[in-house]
């Protein structure tokens, strides 16, 4: 569990609170750790891919010219990517 990241913990909490029987079975079969690590890794890879696609579609503003516009666009890209990941990988 030391290597588990944000998305792994989100998945664990979702399973505990909304799919408790699945969570309990995985816990008893000792597969929960492996599952959470896989989900976390897949989510991070998917996030990276989505962010690249978003930047190609809507390039970020020049950071040196307008730092606030760059931060705003980067945060928007991150929020979009996270929403997609939550719907595709975490809350299923």
Describe the structure.
With about 90 residues, this protein is mainly α. The protein is built from 4 helices and no strands. It has helices at about 5-20, 20-30, 30-55, 65-90. The longest helix is centred in the middle third of the chain and has 26 residues, at about 30-55.
List the helices and strands and how they pair.
Blueprint: H1 6-18, H2 20-28, H3 32-57, H4 67-90
Q: What keyword list fits this structure?
A:
single chain, 92 residues
Largest sheet: none
* Separation, N- and C-terminal Cα atoms: 21 Å
Helix content, binned percent? over 70%
* Number of discrete helical segments: 4
Low-confidence stretches: none
The pLDDT mean sits at 96
Number of domains: 1
> What is the SS-derived class?
mainly alpha
Assembly state of the chains shown: single chain
Global outline: elongated
Q: How many E-type strands?
A: 0
Radius of gyration of CA atoms, rounded to a whole number = 16 Å
- What is the H/E string? HHHH
How big a fraction of the residues is strand? Answer: under 5%
